[in-house]
Structure formats: C-alpha cells, structure tokens
Amino acid sequence: ESFPLNPADVDWIRMGTTVATNALLERKGERVALLVTNGFRDLLYIGNQSRPKLFDLSVRIPDVLYEEVVEVQERVVLCRDDCKLDNEIRGKNEQKKTTTGDKIEVWKEVDEEQLRRDLNVIKEKGILSVAVALLHSYCFPDHELRVGEIARDMGFTNVSL
Fold this sequence. Notes:
The protein is α/β, with parallel strands linked by helices. It has a domain at 29-46 and 64-75 and 109-160: Rossmann fold, CATH 3.40.50. It has helices at 19-25, 43-46, 112-124, 142-153, and strands at 32-37, 68-72, 75-79, 95-97, 103-108, 129-133, 158-160. The protein has a four-stranded parallel beta sheet with strand order 2-1-6-7, with helices on one face. It has a three-stranded antiparallel beta sheet with strand order 3-5-4, with no helix packed on it. GO terms for molecular function: 5-oxoprolinase (ATP-hydrolyzing) activity. This is Hydantoinase/oxoprolinase N-terminal domain-containing protein. InterPro entries: Hydant_A_N (IPR008040), Oxoprolinase-like (IPR045079).
C-alpha cells in the first residue's frame, strides 16, 4: 500500500520456502510406500555402492524416506547386443521399441491382482502415498503408468512415478 505498484508491470514473482526441506529433515509429512520391481526391494537402501570412507567403523547409513516396500510382480529386460545374458533365455518374447530407441522384452506383465492385494495391505496401515520406481521405466513407462493408474483408482492420494 505504501508503494504503488501496477500489477501489469509484474512479469513474474519468485518465492522460496523451506517447508519441504524442513518436512524431510524432521521426518514429517505423508507416510510413503515404495513400489519397485520384484527382487529389488533394497534398491534405494543399497544405493550406488559408493563407500567414500571404506575403513570407517562408524559409517551411518541415512534413513530411508519410505515406510513400506511393495515388490511389483513385473519384469522388463533391456535388450543389448553387448549383454552377456544367455541368448536362449532372451529372444523368446517380442522385442519392443522404447522412448529412447532401445529395445526391450516384457518378460512379465504387471500382476494386477497381486498388486491390488499388496496395495490394500499398505492402505489398511494408513499409507496413502506411493512412489513407483520400476526397472527400465525411463525408456518403457507402460508398467509404471499402469501401476500409478491402479494406485489412483484405489484411492491413493499421492502417486509419484
């Protein structure tokens, strides 16, 4: 009020807060479940295997941000000529092109019935937010998109793909 400003003169406004950072640091906010490809339950816990202090006896592993893990029964395999995967195993399924131009084989479609059962279990625990991280979804998002759709249909309020 003390400084007259014509709104037409404003091109943009930038505002920053620490609300999200504080919520992470204080471990406040929504309870979250992580949905990953079957067999990769500990993927984010293991991380990238970097060990900057290899001989430190008091290494502290950071807490994870999720409370539960659901292993989604699905499998997508990246097809590469330089892969040493047994060729008798690979090649039995139709190869599909991806968004990156790579080729994949879908070895197992999403088991939707099992997924719904697993999501019901975490929903009964009061968890309504899920983060989905399936193998090779960066180039073949179909399975991840389907999992997200099912979660939303079941009433999960926050679905991160």
